[in-house]
Every structure is written in structure tokens, then in C-alpha cells.
Amino acid sequence: MKREGIQYGAPKASGWSSDFIDKFGTDVATALGFEPKNPLVDVVKRLGGRLEYVSNWEFYDNESIFVHSPQDFDIYVSQYTSPLRDRFTIAHELAHYVLHSNFGKIPLVAKRIGSNLAEREANWFAAGFLMPRDLMCNVYKQCGGELWKMAAQLGLSESAVTVRVEYLQRIGVIEK
Questions:
Q1: How far is CA 15 from CA 11, 12, 164, in A?
Q2: What is the CATH number for 158?
Q3: Terminal alpha carbon distance of the chain
Q4: How far apart are alpha carbons 30 and 71 in whole angstroms?
Q5: Alpha-carbon distance 61 to 66, whole Å?
Q6: What does the pLDDT read at residue 129?
Q7: Each residue of 43-60: pLDDT tens digit?
Q8: Are residues 123 and 170 both part of a single domain?
Q9: Total count of domains within the chain
Q10: Residue 61 scores a pLDDT above 70
Q11: Are residues 70 and 124 in the same domain?
């Protein structure tokens, strides 16, 4: 929720490359001691945020994150989506906090719907945060490239893992 006296802006793209943001997401996860399959709510709390699940009718028209100040932000997630889908959503919103608000130094509010560069950057960060390249190479081999097995092992949706594997194949990190 908005707070009186705070001027919120929309997320502004950093302009960094997808490769840099992807690796930055991995670096932030490492710095926070985050391991894949760990609960993301712990990361949100450690950074000073709150996570709230809301009904779809509230969620659809409302914002997905409010960053008020350093160590003070709120993330809103639909209560009707799967926990596997929610993990990527939460990491995406954390990207707005880290990348676009500079860890809360720039108050902002992001909408749930959008496809601009800032939103793509948040996806790149979330992918690197949740699915680091080295881990993905190992999991890909362990699971014989079976995406559903990879998704189960990583605690993510199969669609998130599919997009990540396709990207890593395109840039030559994982062989096709």
C-alpha cells in the first residue's frame, strides 16, 4: 500500500545487459546465502520486506510491489497461483527492489502487468537468482535434460525452467 508523503515512481530500466543482470542475480543470491528451493519469504524478510497473498480480483488491478525505503517494501502475490509459479514471481519482484529501487533508495511501485525493459530485466535477474548457470548445467545433466524433472528438483514451474534452458542453450552454456 502507498504511504503518505512518499513519491513513488515506476521501475526504470538499468540499461545493463541481460548477461550482466543474469549474473548479478546469481551474485545477489550467493551474497544472501540463498540456495535453490529455500523459501523466498526468508529472503524477503531478511531484506526488510513483507509478502502478502491476495485474491485475484484484488491482485489483478493492483500493484505487485511497493518499495517505500531501504529495508521497507511490500510484495503482493495472488493466492490462487501455484507455489512453483510464485517462486519466480517473488524473485521477479525482488529484482525490482534490488535493481530498480537500488535496495530501497528509490521509492517505486510496479504493476503486475507490463512488458517493458524494466520488466524484462526483472525476469533476467530472477532467472539468475533462482537458476544459476552452473547449477542449471549440473541439474540438466542429472535429469537427462528432462524439464519436468529439473523443475521438480529446483522447486520451480516447468515453464520457468523451459525458458531458462532455452536461453542457456541459445548462448551455448548448455548443449542442445
A1: 12, 9, 21
A2: 1.10.10
A3: 45
A4: 19
A5: 14
A6: 98
A7: 999 999 999 998 866 655
A8: no
A9: 2
A10: no
A11: yes
Q: How far apart are the C-alpha atoms of 108 and 18, rounded to whole Å?
A: 22
Residue keyed to cell 547449477? 135
The Cα 82–Cα 77 span in angstroms is: 10
CB 152 within 8 A of CB 84: no
Cell reading at 67: 518499495
Please provide the DSSP assignment of the chain as one string.
---TT---B--------HHHHHHHHHHHHHHTT--TTS-HHHHHHHTTEEEEEE-HHHHHHSEEEEEEETTEEEEEEETTS-HHHHHHHHHHHHHIIIIISTTTTS-EEEESS--SHHHHHHHHHHHHHHS-HHHHHHHHHHTTT-HHHHHHHHTS-HHHHHHHHHHHHHTTSS--
Which residue carries 515512481 as its cell?
9
What cell does 72 get? 521497507
Q: The domain containing residue 75 runs over which residues?
A: 1-130
Kindly report whether the global pTM for this prediction surpasses the value 0.85: yes
Q: Can you give the pLDDT at residue 62?
A: 77
